[in-house]
Amino acid sequence: GGSAHSSRVAMKRFIHISVVINCCCNYTHTDTNLLKTFPQINKVFLSLQIAFFREFLIFIYKEKYTRSALYMAVNIYYNKLTRKHFTLEDILDIKPLNAIVYNQEKVNINDVIAPPYDVITSAYQDELYKKSPYYIVRLILTKGENRYEDAKEFFDKWQKEQVLVHTDKPCIFYLIQKYTTANGRQIERKGFIARNKIEKFETKKILPHEYTMGGPKEDRLKLTSACEANFSQIFLVYSDSDKIIENKILPKYLSQKPFIDAKDDNGVQNIVYLIDDEEDIKVFEKTLEDKTALI
Fold first, then answer.
1. pLDDT of residue 201
2. How far is the C-alpha of 178 from the C-alpha of 264, rounded, in Å?
């Protein structure tokens, strides 16, 4: 149902994966000319062991992959096969944030949270502006001709007024979002907010979105440069069938009062736990170091 370009990309990736399956299941009868056409997959074939590929197939089946995630899966297993010894250059580098957050002694967090900037209409922007003089929309989607300069002015002013404050220590935020779909299905989505090293595409540690538009990217870059802060995080997914962070870290915090528990205008409950324990942060770092993430 996508564009012609998306269809071509999907077909190319489908063929890549088909070649891997063909090579591993029928490796004594492989069409060598076909392999020469896809040199990257040829590398996978030359180093892939049948037992390891069986795990790869199970991995794909369990996750019910979309076409983008299938491409991600190929890279995950290619990376596992080719990385024998990890160095600092090899790992997906995740670190805690030197975070600036709302001072909840001065603002009601329910009065200042907003959806992503790119779903806020002009009418909704006006509505949000009226809610609070400290509404986050004044940073992520400021009105006026000098939007980036105005956002920086608000950002600096709120910090001087102690409306925005630094966390005591570098931290990772664990986020749980709960919502109900139009057909009544209840969803609980888990993730975390941290910082990561910017990667070159060639490393295959972070895979780009299939299609992004230049205008919004330029807009966010200008805002980030003006304010020297990132207000719009990049959404990435990674695969961990063992759910190490969810099983090892999250239970320790569920009995505690959340750092944030707020419901937005769409009815989504956002529960945030602040994690600044150094040993817990090491679990995040270690878990992600051999992963491939997809934007």
1. 82
2. 11
pLDDT of residue 36: 46
Give CA–CA dist 256/19, Å, rounded: 50
Looking at per-residue pLDDT, the higher value among 213 and 103 belongs to 103
Q: CA 227, CA 32: separation in Å to the nearest integer?
A: 54
Residue 220 predicted with pLDDT over 70: yes
Burial environment of residue 202 by CB neighbours within 10 A (0 to 12, 13 to 18, 19 or more): exposed
Residue 57 to residues 51, 62, 113, 215, 256, Cα–Cα distance (Å): 10, 9, 42, 39, 39
CA–CA separation, 71 vs 18, rounded Å? 11
Count of beta carbons in the 10 Å neighbourhood of residue 132: 16
Residue 186 DSSP SS3:
strand
How would residue 1 be classed by pLDDT, with cut points 50, 70 and 90?
very low
Instruction: Indicate the SS3 state at residue 284.
Output: helix
E strands present in 79-133? 94-95, 100-102
Cα separation, 175 vs 262, whole angstroms: 11
3-state secondary structure of 48: coil
- The 10 Å CB-count burial string (b at 16+, else e) for 259-281 is bbebeeeeebebbbbbbbeeebb
- Of 208, 173, 206, nearest in space to 190 by CA: 173
Label residue 173 exposed, middle or buried (CB < 10 Å: 0-12, 13-18, 19+).
buried
Confidence of residue 22 (pLDDT cuts 50, 70, 90): very low
Pair 129, 205: CB distance under 8 Å: no
Q: In angstroms, rounded to a whole number, what is the distance separating the alpha carbons of residues 288 and 46?
A: 27
